[in-house]
Design goal:
alpha/beta; 10 helices; about 280 residues; globular; five-stranded parallel sheet; 2 domains; about 10% strand; Oxidized Rhodanese, domain 1
Length: about 280
């Protein structure tokens, strides 16, 4: 069973294996239809497409962030239509660094499906290695996905109540510019949650776009933990997507147990009563 990442070489022999399901979650937040169009143009043979907004998130209210967690029954039905059940090994990919794939990976883990992994290096590496691809639609045999558990999450009230708790590490996965409040391309207010620490997702990646070795990741995260238990880490970002990249990196590093703040900055900044910070860490 694969529970973190798989390489293209590990996936390719299983493209016709009925026990494996490949999910394509390529996305561009500035172009909502881009990922689906790219999938229709070409994709890994047998892959099924899921959309970050339409399939992997709940409707937005203006106060719950840009990518709220989906309703459990709704996402279970979506995964069932994609042919996922408890017997399947799922592999998820996006176009490159793996942020959207990591959110899908975390969502399945959140629902109790442990046999899910991210394609290391994504579509970019798959194509660079000249692996098979197609434009043919995938014929899917529907399955019955059953929710079997839950990963821990925290909400805005919990984050607010622990702002001064030094036993907790609030890790922000956004770029340094967004973390410092120097730019904000997606949300109406720039800045960060007070007391948070920056860990941009590209710090998890080697120059070729694949994840760094587990030993390197462990050394970096142990330093960031500064003696804290991994379970005391709360992961945030702009909307609870790239935060999952750090959650996955910690799992690869052998440091599981972190929690996701799904609303992240997009939810936090929607309430002007919540404190904000900016500038250097």
């Amino acid at each position: 069973m694969h529970t973190t990442i798989v390489s293209p070489a590990e996936l390719e022999p299983h493209l016709e294996d009925p026990r494996w399901v490949v999910l394509d979650v390529r996305a561009n937040l500035r172009k909502p239809d881009w990922g689906r169009e790219e999938y229709e143009h070409e994709h890994i043979p047998g892959a099924r497409y899921l959309h970050i907004d339409d399939d992997l998130s709940a409707p937005k209210t203006g106060a719950n962030g840009r990518h709220p967690l989906p309703d459990r029954d709704a996402i279970a039905a979506t995964l069932g239509r994609a042919g996922v059940d408890e017997t399947k090994q799922v592999v998820v990919y996006d176009q490159n660094e793996g942020a959207f794939a990591a959110r899908c990976w975390w969502t399945l883990q959140w629902l109790g499906h442990e046999a899910v992994a991210v394609l290391d290096g994504g579509w970019a590496r798959w194509m660079r290695e000249q692996r098979p691809h197609t434009d043919r639609p995938t014929i899917v045999a529907p399955a019955s996905f059953r929710v079997r558990g839950s990963r821990p999450v925290v909400d805005a009230a919990d984050v607010l109540a622990h702002l001064d708790d030094r036993r907790r590490l609030l890790l922000d996965a956004r770029s340094p510019e967004r973390f410092r409040g120097e730019s904000e391309p997606f949300d109406p207010v720039a800045g960060r949650i007070p007391g948070s620490t920056n860990r941009p997702v590209n710090a998890n990646l080697a120059p070729d776009g694949s994840f760094r070795p587990s030993g390197e990741l462990r050394q970096a995260f142990v330093a960031a933990l500064a003696g804290r238990d991994p379970g005391e880490v709360v992961h945030a970002c702009g909307s609870g997507v790239t935060a999952c990249h750090n959650l996955l990196a910690m799992e690869i590093a052998g440091l599981p147990g972190g929690k996701l703040y799904p609303g992240s900055w997009s939810e936090w900044c929607a309430d002007p009563a919540r404190p904000r910070a900016s500038g250097p860490e």
